[in-house]
Design brief:
The complex is a heterodimer. Chain A is an alpha+beta fold. Chain A is about 25% helix and about 30% strand. Chain A contains five helices and 14 strands. In chain A, the strands form three sheets. In chain A, strands 1, 6, 7, 8, 9 and 10 form a six-stranded antiparallel sheet that branches. A five-stranded antiparallel sheet of chain A has the order 11-2-3-12-13, covered by helices on one side. Chain A has a two-stranded antiparallel sheet with strand order 4-5. The longest helix of chain A has 22 residues. In chain B, the strands form three sheets. A five-stranded antiparallel sheet of chain B has the order 10-1-2-11-12, with helices on one face. In chain B, strands 5-6-7-8-9 form a five-stranded antiparallel sheet, covered by helices on one side. In chain B, helix 1 packs across helix 2 and helix 3 runs antiparallel to helix 4. Chain B is globular and about 45 Å long. The chains are: A alpha+beta, B alpha+beta. Chains A and B meet through helix 1, strand 5, helix 2 and strand 14 of A and helix 1, helix 2, helix 3, helix 4 and strand 12 of B.
């Protein structure tokens, strides 16, 4: 590698490959697709707090890349965030804001508020003008009570009692519009969110697999993964093991792994030797 | 043609009983022309930790060098071997830093925890979104064929010798249905006390 061998890791994005990538595209080569979380994510405010729900499928074009990915991300002890859109963006954005919020908490000495996380997220997403494809449902309980926000990739936010995002959001929102009432009990709220996510899983092609739930109250957080295994994998009818020695091998080398010796103990016999 | 299919590659990793296996094809080609049949796509990052890099060949080598650099600094600072999960974070960060001008590689990581010996496999897309599974991971131009083979052949808790047969047959039959990958295969079976590297005899077309 020419030029500085030592990478100055200043943090933030690096644009060094952009000209080369543009030239590759000009040559006629197609740009590959990143993992998207097709997704159904939803959130609801109930009597004592917030219930967040998500499906667990990640797709790469039309192929299911991950059958059980976790879409409910930790932001702080009392705040969690569901992510839809480009999977890497939702993962990294929530990690970054979680770190920023922790530093903020240490600097102010107060428990973080959901509106702070919302402000940090929307300011970052707006700065990148929608190029960071992260659509989020942010929920938590803080000193002001339960709060729920939906955040769009371009940086707009909505503060609402119930929200849905992702490709299955229409199916989930239909369920909410039918059965939502303010001040539901915990069981009713969990059932409603589960039904909304299930509507997305069974009707939207981009969502699938299981339902994950996260119930946040003033005192505790229940991260239930999976809340329901809506689609269990079928049992294989046969074993397809090959006999040992089937594959033709040209050469084989074995390398022993050296163990790190961390301590040596030498025991001597209890009695001293007699010298006579 | 996609940028990832310019050079062609097929890599997969599987979990077994106290062991993991990672396998790759050996072709290096430029679109339709095969240039070499001994191109390394799996790199050793620790005595029990390997990474496979399918995709654009120049990025395979650049990412491998940059990663080794960061890993060396980590091991000098921490004075211990890196855990596979931490290494996965390191790769993810390296790729996400270039979110808007990415490296065209989709890595596959396989290893054992240096203390507990627990098997670990993970894969990523080209901008670093991690995916950890308990069965197998695949990446490359014939990923759909590899998904099919792995779903059929893999079962949990395979002994190292059976895991070798399973991963070899899954990989070979998958890349035989892909024009731009193949021309030889290499399989690493990683156990707590030894790593076995086998070269397979495959079709050369």
């Amino acid at each position: 590698m020419a030029a500085p061998c030592v990478e100055p890791s200043k943090g933030g994005f690096s644009f060094e490959n952009c000209t080369r990538n543009a030239r590759l595209e000009q040559m006629g080569l197609k740009f590959p697709k990143a993992y998207k979380t097709g997704t159904t994510i939803a959130g609801i405010i109930y009597k004592d707090g917030v219930v967040l729900g998500a499906d667990t499928r990640a797709t790469e074009d039309t192929v299911v890349a991950d059958k059980n990915c976790a879409k409910i991300h930790y932001i702080s002890d009392n705040i969690y965030c569901c992510g839809a859109g480009t999977a890497a963006d939702t993962e990294m954005t929530t990690l970054m804001i979680s770190a920023q919020l922790e530093l903020h908490r240490l600097a102010t000495g107060r428990a973080p508020r959901v509106c702070t996380a919302n402000r940090l997220l929307k300011q970052m997403l707006f700065r990148y003008q929608g190029y960071i494809g992260a659509a989020l449902v942010l929920g938590g309980v803080d000193a002001t009570g339960p709060n729920l926000y939906s955040i769009w990739p371009h940086g707009s936010t909505d503060k609402l009692p119930y929200v849905t995002m992702g490709s299955g959001s229409l199916a989930a929102m239909a369920t909410f519009e039918d059965r939502f009432k303010p001040n539901m009990s915990k069981e009713e709220a969990m059932k409603l969110v589960r039904d909304a996510i299930a509507a997305g899983i069974f009707n939207d092609l981009g969502s699938g697999s299981n339902v994950d739930l996260c119930v946040i109250t003033k005192d505790k957080v229940e991260y239930i993964r999976p809340h329901e295994v809506a689609n269990a994998k079928g049992v294989k009818q046969g074993r397809y093991l090959y006999k040992r020695g089937t594959t033709a091998v040209l050469s084989s080398e074995t390398k022993k792994v050296e163990f790190d010796v961390i301590g040596t103990e030498v025991k001597t016999s209890a009695q001293p030797m007699d010298t006579q | 043609m996609s940028i990832l299919a310019y050079n062609g590659a097929a890599i997969m990793a599987m979990k077994g009983k106290n062991c993991v296996a990672i396998a790759a094809d050996r072709r290096f080609g430029i679109q339709a022309q095969t240039v070499s049949m001994d191109f390394d796509k799996i790199f050793e990052m620790g005595p029990n930790l390997y990474i496979g890099l399918p995709g654009l060949a120049t990025d395979v080598q650049t990412v491998q060098n940059r990663l080794k650099f960061r890993l060396n600094l980590y091991e000098l600072r921490e004075n211990r071997r890196i855990k596979p999960k931490t290494f996965m974070s390191m790769v993810s960060n390296l790729l996400y830093e270039r979110r808007f001008g990415p490296y065209f590689v989709e890595p596959v990581i396989a290893g054992l925890d240096p203390k507990t010996g627990e098997p670990y496999i993970a894969s990523m897309d080209l901008i670093g979104c991690p995916m950890e599974t308990n069965d197998f991971v695949v990446s490359g131009t014939c990923s759909e064929q590899m998904y099919g083979m792995c779903e059929s052949l893999w079962e949990p808790d395979l002994e190292p010798d059976d895991l070798f047969e399973t991963i070899s047959q899954a990989l070979m039959n998958a890349f035989d249905r892909d024009a731009v990958s193949g021309w030889g295969a290499v399989v690493y079976i990683i156990e707590k006390d030894k790593v076995t590297k086998k070269m397979l005899k495959t079709r050369q077309d």
